[in-house]
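User: Here's a protein and a ligand (coenzyme A). What would the complex look like?
Assistant: Let me lay out the input and then the predicted complex.
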Amino acid sequence: MTLLSKQGASIIATGSAVPELCINNHEISKVVETSDEWIVSRTGIKERRILNGINNSITDLATLAAIRALNKISMDPLEIDLIILATSSPNDLFGSASQIQANIGAYNAAAFDITAACSGFIVSLTTATQFIENGVYNNILVIGADALSKWTDWSDRSTCILFGDGAGAIILQSCLPDDKGILGFQLNTNGQKYNQLCLAYKDYYNTSNSLKITQGAFNKITMNGREVYKFAVSQVPESIEKCLYKLDIPIEEINWIILHQANKRILEAVANKLIINNNKFISNLDKYGNTSAASIPLVLDEAVGKQIIQRGQKIIISGFGAGLTWGTIAIQWKY
Ligand code: COA
């Protein structure tokens, strides 16, 4: 049964921010045994931005991305009803969205974090859409921001070459149901494979007093690269097809596809499976690497800025990663 929505939701602005420090493959080859040629041929990544220095946090980047999105449409932050921060590397495990609320002065907004790794932006945009379609809120700021460099094992050459830091933001606004920009979504989880890509908690005994309580810390990122690759290539095309099938939109009508920027070979394999020309896939992977929850809004903001994405065009965005989680959203661009 399909419930009728009270209102539709459309993206009305985008913004993004990346750290200044740029580390190319040659520099990485000085700390682990690898080469620019290996990294480019296996992943497509040439360089990545890394958050470095004291008092320079992912919350600052997320704040900047949010301010840039607000400024594009001269929106007063007091008009924002809700802030959703997609991140798996917050400054504060209790949540960092509230810091962003204060930083931008969005004092009327509720704010919370969503943790879904590289699918975080898709899960958060889907969540935001529900609040709007139910008629509860009118303006929602959705931010994808991650600094996985903080959790990368810089001695593991199979993972440290992949990740970069960044933040991307969108503003979602209510509209008439017939004018909606968020057309539909499709979400999935396979928890049985959660251990293929983890940033796992570990216990240790705190022996500093007689209670000997077990306490926690987080390990660095661990990944089974081949399994994650196979998962993405098999599941992402299926998710896109299911999403479009539900909406009765033929894939030929899609103007642009923006996948989570994990690996050039994954993008190419998905294009082959869907029998879609590679040039419909927008990518900036070479410059930023895998920025986790930030990757899709970073591409969106860049593509809108370069006027690649035009009003009225249909776009697929699709995220995948730890969990394992994956999902797709179909969008019609409205501004
Ligand atoms: N430089 C040079 N050699 C490397 C290397 C590096 N950075 N990383 C791994 N290797 C080596 C391995 O040690 C292995 O050597 P061996 O044959 O002597 O044992 C060889 O390259 C092949 O390793 P393998 O893991 O099979 O490589 P791969 O072709 O699968 O490429 C990844 C590795 C990580 C690039 C690839 O598996 C991948 O992209 N997976 C998806 C990861 C991803 O996108 N994760 C995030 C999802 S959100």
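Summary: The first strand starts at residue 8 and ends at 17.
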